Amino acid sequence: MPLHFNSQIIDEFRTNAGRLGGPFEGWVLLLLTTTGARSGKDHTTPLGFVEDRDENGRDRLLVTGSAGGSDRHPDWYRNILVNPTVTVERGTETWRATAVAATGAERDRLFAKVVAAAPGYADYQKATDRIIPVVALYRIPEDTYTPPNRLDALAGELIKIHDWLRSELTALAEGLGSRTASGLTVELRRHCLTFCSAMAVHHGGEDAGLFPYLARTHPEKAEVFARLQAEHATVGRVLDELQALLARLDDAEPGALHAEFDRLRGELETHFAYEEEQVLPLLRESV
Question: 10, 18 in Cβ contact below 8 A?
Answer without folding.
Answer: no
